[in-house]
Amino acid sequence: LPINVVLPGLGLFFAVLCLPLAMLVSRALGARGWVASLLAPFLMACDANWAVGSTIGLESSQFAAGVFGAILLVVHAKGRWRLLAGIFCGLLGGVRPEGYVLGALLVAHDLWQSRKAPTLGAKVDLAAAALFAVGALLWWRYHTYGSVIANTFIAKSRRDVWPQIQRNYDFYAKEGVYFIVVIVVFVVGVGALWKNALARVCGAMALAIVLIAFRVHEWMPGARLLLPSLGLTMCLFAGMVGSLPLREALWHLLPMGAFSVLMLFGDMNREVYLYDRANTVQPANGAELAALHLRKYAPKGATLATRDAGVLSFFVGTDVRLAELHERALTQKHPNGEHVKIYDFTPKNPEMVVLTNTGKDDEEPGFAPEAELWSNLSVPYEYLGRVSQHPKRFYDVYVRRDLKIPPLPEK
Questions:
Q1: 46 with 260: CB under 8 angstroms?
Q2: CA–CA separation, 313 vs 325, rounded Å?
Q3: What is the mean pLDDT of the segment spanning 161-170?
Q4: Partner of 263 for a Cys bridge, out of 46, 119, 158, 386, CB 3.0 to 4.6 A?
Q5: In the chain, what is the greatest distance between 2 CA atoms, to the nearest angstrom?
């Protein structure tokens, strides 16, 4: 499948699906009437973070749709449908690691709401289904990867807590006005609906997403990890506005209307689009074209060794083996969560080696596992050229000289 068409398309599908789901969540939080119900999806649709975060081929909008769907199932499911709601909550962790936390909050909410149910089964059926789903997911993860914790989470959260939080703050301070408004909206919405148990759990979920996201570096790009939190914040605000008399509601709707105009036409989201333009992989980029060149000439069963060139690894095709030179290699098991040793699965002299550089003028490999392999090669290699994926990723392509693969075309 053409990955750069299918995955952004799926992301857009889930982003559009989030709009009616957000409307239904707003109604569950107390929004009365169409104007209040449409407030949250309207604000989300005006937001560049949703536009960018949903269409880059990653899982952000899928996760947001899952969060909204889980809330609605927990609120509305009756009888045997409660088992489906529990399974749905348990499987949120299969999309993103923080899904376990959000699912647990929803299950705790349901246990509290069901405490007066007439039978024990009616009290704990949803929680039991969620535990079953989590257990099955962790069993599969352990037997597939050797660890119950996602490699991606370990790889992205290895730095000390405070420096990482400071780094994320410095990056997102560029959108200062936007996030100040979001924080105010969150505080106002949660405060006004505090007596509503669902509003409290939605507020806790939105806050948990932010706290977990700030523990991770390189979200790439925009506020993509915050999409469920941003959506829940808008739903809380809509629930508050929808529960007010018309005259009071207007005092809240007018400034938010002005804010949505700023989001659409002002400079508030300029940084989001600039970051997207600089970091999102475009169709027919250098890495893809280089991979298609190697695919044409590489012998079947040859090994491509690289740490970071994911686009190149994908487009080189399934007839080429991948030796992923990464401590948290997704293609390898990690018994007890340990780092991998690259020579356990990498030939000493692989047919093709791609070295990663983060700067246009860098000459040495940018990451330790690649440097280790490069320093231990014992046969001659031919340099085919350097390709650019985006302004922060450059790949130097080498092949064993005995393969006689021609240099990369100028384009």
A1: yes
A2: 12
A3: 80
A4: 46
A5: 79
- Return the HEC string of the chain: CCHHHHHHHHHHHHHHHHHHHHHHHHHHCCCCCHHHHHHHHHHHHCCHHHHHHHCCCCCHHHHHHHHHHHHHHHHHCCCCHHHHHHHHHHHHHHCCCCHHHHHHHHHHHHHHHCCCCCCHHHHHHHHHHHHHHHHHHHHHHHHHHCCCCCHHHHHHCCCCHHHHHHHHHHHHHHHHHHHHHHHHHHHHHHHHCCCCHHHHHHHHHHHHHHHHHCCCCCCCCCCHHHHHHHHHHHHHHHHHHHCCCHHHHHHHHHHHHHHHHHHHHCCCCHHHHHHHHHHCCCCCCHHHHHHHHHHHHCCCCCEEEECCCHHHHHHCCCCCEEEECCCCCCCCCCHHHCCCCHHHCCCCCCCEEEEEECCCCCCCCCCHHHHHHHHCCCCCEEEEEEEEEECCEEEEEEEEHHHCCCCCCCC
Look up the pTM and report it.
0.90
Alpha-carbon separation of residue 11 from 14, 58, 99, 122 (angstroms): 5, 7, 18, 36
| Cβ(376)–Cβ(365) below 8 Å | no
Strand 381-390 vs strand 393-400: parallel, antiparallel, or unpaired? antiparallel
Percentage of the chain modeled with pLDDT above 70: 99
189/203 Cα distance (integer angstroms):
9
pLDDT score for 216: 80
Tens-digit pLDDT profile for residues 381-396: 999 999 988 777 889 9
Average pLDDT of the chain, as a whole number: 89
Nearest by Cα to 342 from 319, 358, 311, 365:
365
For 293-347, the pLDDT digits (tens) are: 999 999 999 999 998 878 899 899 999 999 999 888 888 888 877 888 999 999 9
Residue with tokens 């989030």: 18
Measured at the CA of 95, the angle between CA 91 and CA 99, to 5 degrees, comes to 65
With 0-12 / 13-18 / 19 or more C-beta atoms within 10 angstroms meaning exposed / middle / buried, residue 289 is middle
